[in-house]
Amino acid sequence: MKAAAAARANAPVRKCGVKYQVSWWEHIICRAQRGPYTTQKAGFGDMRIGGLKHAARLATGAGALVVVLGLSGCSGNPISTFTTPTLSEVERQTVEPTVSSDALITPCTLTVALDTNDAPQAIEDSNGKLTGYVVDTARAIACRMGLKVTFVNAASADSALNGKKADIYIGDVSRVGSGVSSLGDCLYDAPSVFGKAGDGDQGVSLDNLNSATLGVQNASASQESLTKSGITGSQKTYSNINECFQALDSGEVDYVVCDSTAGGYLARMDDKVTYLGALQTPTTLGVASLDSNSALAKAVSEALDNITADGTLEAVHSVWYGTMPYDLTTKTVSGATVEKPDTTSSSEVASTSGDSSSSSDSGSSAGSVESQAEGKTITDNDINKLAD
Prior knowledge:
alpha/beta, 29% helix, disordered N terminus
């Protein structure tokens, strides 16, 4: 049985004229096994929940990836003990590159541009290594393409791709210039409501919010969303999201309204807090490439489709945002107008320039993540690069 499980655990391992590398999902598991996890550069102030608990969350996410990769228990014996093979038992396979090196800036390597200050989509771990949801998503795409991966910092798709700094860009691709197209989406983001775990079963409505005390960051996009939604509940404002969650824990407020990715990241470290619903139609993060590089666009599009279809992307999402659903429109505030965002399927690689406009005002979200070692915290606008 163990041998059979090991055979099913043949996670793709990239090879492109070099020795085998640790596969992407093994990277997730290894991180969980390394012990206490701290985000020295993420800056979450007093919300410094124990690192071991966070490691356990990562292990849970890794377990989800195991399921995605087909590590089901013995069929026909549902009550048998479930075990997974050790890394040494996994037979490593070679995934041939799905695109030639002529289509890449660096041979055998997918160069990915992203905003490295957009926590928790991209943050540095305690060892100074770049990690985060977008980073792991990029690793998964590269793995499916049989390539290594490297990262560069960029503020926009246009500057990164037209400047020949990267092969693809992952981030806000709602506004892209001529010659750049979106290949598909990988993350939903919206002003959302978080509350005590016991409230999750019943959900939350506009009527609930109108009669409640709401914790929100002062002068943030989320506070503006309360005004747009006509919510009349009493507001208590704080300087950052961490303080909002502390107020929720102490009973000072009934709910917290904040960016979904910020709230999901913090809530996954506290079993007493849960996502209750999106307040507005989500915006998205997506993947973009140059129109002129059709071979790369096709290969990346197919890889993104694959990790979306087989559940890998959703499993990565659970690692970074806990139980918050990947598709925020599946759980919304009752009475709020929340629709699925108008997105581009990654299976339909655009051939026209992406000059469409969007209601997203990313300019209002300028800010930088400050160091936790300096005892500072992160704000809603720091973490929300898709502020409406």
